[in-house]
Fold this protein.
Amino acid sequence: MKKDLVSITDLTSEEVWLLIRNALEMKRGGKTPDLKGQTLALLFEKPSLRTRVSFDVAMYQLGGHTIYLSPAEVGLGSRENIQDVATVLSRYVDCIVSRTFAHSKVEGLATYATVPVINGLSDSEHPCQALGDLLTIYEKKGKLQGLSLAFVGDGNNVASSLALVAALVGMEFTLACPKGYELPEKVLTLAQSFASKSRGRVACTHDPLDAVKTADVVYTDVWISMGQEEQRERRLKDFAAFQVGGKLLDLAKRDVVFMHPLPAHHGEEIEQGLLDHPKSVVFDQAENRLHIQKAILVRLLSNIPRPKIPM
Ligand code: CP
Ligand code: NVA
């Protein structure tokens, strides 16, 4: 049976730990499984630096290769319907990473493709980012269970995946956001149910100070995600009191680390210069996208029986 990674909810906490362990092992120079002869399609409706390059390099280092299909090329659901794209791609490639606007598109690809489908960011989730982030937090703190993460900003795709995965591994996730920008109800309910089993906690406040005062990790993301450009003026006003800067970090635990998935809008969600702050780990975080993508690819692509062609 093929396995997809469309949402964090496709994983158990054991599988999350396995991915982190395998990523660390490969990062430390351990034996790398061979994906020789395997091809990954990168089917993107939105721009990307990290996701595209890290998957491309990951596949190259694992012995396989990638084909990049840019937003202008495929017309997923417009030039050709999702079922036909998924069926045709499955005849050529061994795995598909897709970056879409509507989450239903990546779900549709997973439904119809006979090869694994990975969500490389949709309007609702960014699971690969969240897994890479746990790898970074684990490296910096030596544990995950019981750590407190304050997400200051929008209850968006990045926040949703992070809340779900943090809850799976027993972390305390607090979103500090303006009214009206909370996590989607469904995500909050699911994350809270994971947290009740893992001894974690998921909460929401409208006061950034309240969220960061016990934080081991302070995290933020852009206020205007890809596809929300028309809401720019309103969002800049609504989020004005939610900028993360050195002063806010000073109110957290002494050994707090600052994280951001990038790209960053300097002077908006972060104070100018914050990426170079001594507490910032954002470039290690960006590097870890490569190591976690390798673990994800190996998990989904190793030991998949190749279809036998009857003669
Ligand atoms: N963090 C992240 O996914 O970056 P890109 O949009 O550049 O891929
Ligand atoms: N929330 C951002 C994340 C980019 C990696 C967006 O969707 O644009």
About this structure: The beta strands are 39-44, 65-69, 95-99, 117-119, 148-152, 172-176, 201-205, 217-219, 257-259.
